[in-house]
Design a protein that fits this description.
Layout lengths: L16 E4 L1 E5 L5 E5 L5 E12 H14 L5 E4 L5 E5 L4 E6 L2 E10 L4
Antiparallel strand pairs: 1-4, 2-3, 4-8, 5-6, 6-8, 7-8
Length: 112
């Protein structure tokens, strides 16, 4: 089964959260050794917002429901990097007049 791509345009107002997992060994003489924690030690997440019609927000929710927070999908970051992501917290909020605001956080995912 092919990996689906998230193609809806999103607003990128909030800053992403990017961290690198590292392991540190501190020795008595002041020497410190630092190494990356595994081959995929970069963890990044991107808060996104989409505002649109109820029907369009429902399309996005259907997409996210198919992935159910566990199955990764392709998405292009604001810097233009294509990667695998998952989403566990989508929140559709009615704004009024048939318009909805969908907020979510896309978290980097890795395939074994």
């Amino acid at each position: 089964m092919a990996i689906e791509m998230f193609t809806w345009p999103t607003q990128h107002g909030d800053a992403p959260e990017i961290t690198y997992r590292v392991r540190t060994a501190q020795f008595g003489d002041g020497y410190k050794q630092i190494a990356g924690d595994g081959p995929n030690n970069k963890e990044d997440s991107y808060p996104i917002t989409y505002t649109g019609s109820r029907a369009r927000v429902q399309e996005i929710m259907d997409f996210l429901d198919r992935h159910a927070g566990a199955k990764a999908f392709l998405w292009t970051t604001p810097l233009g990097q294509l990667g695998l992501f998952s989403c566990v917290n989508p929140t559709p909020t009615p704004v009024g007049g048939g318009v909805f605001k969908l907020t979510a956080t896309f978290n980097r995912a890795f395939q074994p």
